[in-house]
Amino acid sequence: MSTKVIFENVSIVLHRPRFPENIGAAARAMRNMGIDQLVVVDPLNFDLDKVLKMATHEASNIVEQIKIFGDLQDALSSYNYVVGTTARLGRQRTMVDSPAEVAERLISISRENHIAVVFGPEDRGLSNDDLRYCHGLVNIPTAEFSSLNLAQAVMIMCYEIFVARQVEYNKFIPRLADRYELEGMYAQLKDILVRISFINADNPDYWLNNLRRFFNRLPLRSREVNIIRGICRQINWYGEKRYQDGKQAERR
Ligand code: SAH
Questions:
Q1: Spatial CA neighbour of 163 closest among 1, 5, 56
Q2: Distance 16 CA to ligand 1 centre (A)
Q3: pLDDT > 70: what percent of the chain?
Q4: Ligand 1 centroid distance, CA of 17 (Å)
Q5: Residue 116 alpha carbon to ligand 1 centre in Å
Q6: Closest residue (by CA) to atom 11 of ligand 1?
Q7: Looking at ligand 1, which atom is closest to the CA of residue 125?
Q8: Helices (H), the chain
């Protein structure tokens, strides 16, 4: 399965933003994090100069391609999955996830679906009515004062989505050692650890189980098994050498 995330499938939706500067700053944050679809619903005092000033030249493309809608329902109609962001929690806002949890979910959903992450107006946030369109809700944890600046909230969400994508890429797992390789390694470890008296010769398997549990926590690759086997061989060589050296010294 491809791990490529289609960021074109993620849009940021600003519902009734009151300050054009926040739209510009949100566009800039999006540009930083590689998300470029910006939707603005019923903005107050929309002033392109003020938006562009905060967006900087780098994010001007995002601003030029902003889609503007008159109401939230229309704006969201083409999306398959909608996440609402809220500073406030309450009885109707109990199923709330953290940005990182939501971002991780969005990465897999975004492969096949259009996603909207919705932000509310600076003064009142999203209403319970607005939240009806949301499949999920996210709250950015804070100290007592929970209300972030709109563009900063956008930044945190975009950042988490960006990071979740990186983690997804890094999840590539190379070929792991198979059971045959591992059993060879355990047999060699048992032999050498008994011989250097690190484990009891009467019941070596009992102690070896601890080592098995330890290695099972971090699945070993073939190369790593070879390193451990190499160390065992070297210990063996060293022991033999000291033994032979000792015998020769006796003969002298
Ligand atoms: N005073 C409003 C907050 C508005 S801030 C209220 O109490 O709800 C503008 C928008 O930024 C919010 O609607 C939300 O989309 C986002 N936002 C601000 N702080 C947030 C937080 N702690 N968690 C999630 N989103 C937040």
A1: 5
A2: 13
A3: 95
A4: 11
A5: 16
A6: 150
A7: 13
A8: 20-33, 48-55, 60-64, 72-76, 99-109, 128-131, 150-170, 179-195, 204-217, 222-251
Q: Where are the beta strands (DSSP E) in 28-69?
A: 37-41, 67-69
Q: Which atom of ligand 1 is nearest to the CA of 138?
A: 24
Ligand 1 centroid to Cα of residue 58, in Å, is 26
Quote the pTM value. 0.75
| Residue 89 predicted with pLDDT over 60 | yes
Instruction: Report, as an integer, the average pLDDT of 7-11.
Output: 89
C-alpha closest to that of 150 among 44, 10, 5, 7:
44
157-186 tens-digit pLDDT:
999 999 998 876 666 666 778 878 888 999
DSSP annotation of 176 reads B
Q: How far apart are CA 132 and CA 77, in angstroms?
A: 13
Domains located in the chain, CATH noted: 7-165 (3.40.1280.10), 179-251 (1.10.8.590)
Q: What average pLDDT does the segment 52-64 reach?
A: 97
Give per-residue pLDDT as tens, 192-202. 999 999 998 99
Of 148, 154, 156, 161, the residue with max ligand 1 atoms within 8 A of its CB, to mutate for a pocket test, comes to: 148
Cβ distance 229 to 191 under 8 Å? no
